[in-house]
Amino acid sequence: MRKLLIVLAFAGVSAASMAQNTNTVPTEKYSVATNSFWSNWFVQVGGQWNAWYSDQEVGKGLSKNPFKSFRSGQAISFSVGKWFTPGIGLRTKFAGIWGKTVLDDNKNTNKYWTANEQVLFNLSNMFFGYNPTRVWNFIPFAGAGISRSCTYNRYGQQFSAGLLNEFNVSKRVAVNVELGWNLMTRDADGVEGTYSKRNLKSKDNDLYAEVGLTFNLGKTGWEKTPDVAALQALSKSQLDALNAQLSDEQAENAKLKDALANQKPAEPTVTKEIVNTPISVFFNLGKSEIASKKDLVNIKALASYAKDNNSKITVTGNADSATGSAKYNKKLSEKRANKIADVLVKLGISRDNISIVANGGVDTLSPVSYNRRAIVQIAQ
């Protein structure tokens, strides 16, 4: 008996592994809406082969082979149930008709039926996410109920457990392969046992293997629900980017106002001094696209001066050190510098006259958003 249970357990574990290996494409995990009462109902029908291990056979040295004729028989089953979530369901299962009372190695008929209320756990959906196109679902179950020997007119309590494997043929139909165990009272097979120790041997046990069909009724499947956390994170990210862009533009406006306020009357040297003032072009968080095209107004003036004087230009890219790794910021600052270099080339500056410097992540300015910039100036 113990060896048989171990074999069934290993078979179930192997089935679970195989079930998940059939889905090599990663499954998207997401939340689903709670379904209505009338959704995700199902009925199941099947044929069983069962093997009985009776209390009264203990000590008689009978073969434990489940395929012995004095032990094995056939049965049919019918179930109705509902999935309340993609991972948890409930079903009522009726089974029986032909069984055995094991007294000796002769044929001992026991016509019976069982009724169990069982909780189903779809581990495929629980661990790998709900997937409406998954072919194989691995579903352990456990429950309790009653049994009745029609031959001997006896009732008893029982516990049930097992492994249900569903192979989806379509949205409405699945093929079932089920292994189960019913642990019953000692007279469930109609004969009161005499074994005194309180363990599995003092109970009547029914092991079964079943093949059947599942028919899904009404509305099936589950609808996605919005990922509130993801939406909040996205909104916060967008808001941070807008705030950073606003801060950058306000800082640049302040710089321009200060430059205009301190500008001296035009003199031959003034133009050169203004052109030699470093020009900042600002970027949004994690981006190499220019945040505001207004920054390019000053770039055009500097490019015009450089062309007229055949001057060299240095473009220095920066990223803020508060976000991203050092390696990421180094690459981002280089992308930003090259972005400005491309603009200068379009304005007529030779690429040979442009030097690129990538500072990586820096914290020279406050607030930190001001560091997301590229600095352009005439090389001294």
How would you describe what is shown here?
The chain has 380 residues and is α+β, with helices and mostly antiparallel strands. It is rod-shaped. The N terminus is likely disordered. The longest helix is centred in the middle third of the chain and has 34 residues. The chain has an eight-stranded antiparallel barrel. The chain has two domains: 216 residues, Beta Barrel (Porin); 151 residues, 60s Ribosomal Protein L30, Chain: A (2-Layer Sandwich).
Structure summary:
The chain is an alpha+beta fold and 380 residues long. The protein has helices at residues 2-21, 123-128, 228-261, 270-275, 296-309, 326-346, and strands spanning 41-53, 72-83, 88-97, 99-100, 109-110, 112-121, 136-149, 154-168, 173-184, 204-217, 279-282, 313-320, 354-362, 373-378.
Q: SSE layout and pairings?
A:
Layout: H1 2-21, E1 41-53, E2 72-83, E3 88-97, E4 99-100, E5 109-110, E6 112-121, H2 123-128, E7 136-149, E8 154-168, E9 173-184, E10 204-217, H3 228-261, H4 270-275, E11 279-282, H5 296-309, E12 313-320, H6 326-346, E13 354-362, E14 373-378
Parallel strand pairs: 12-13
Antiparallel strand pairs: 1-2, 1-10, 2-3, 3-6, 4-5, 6-7, 7-8, 8-9, 9-10, 11-14, 12-14
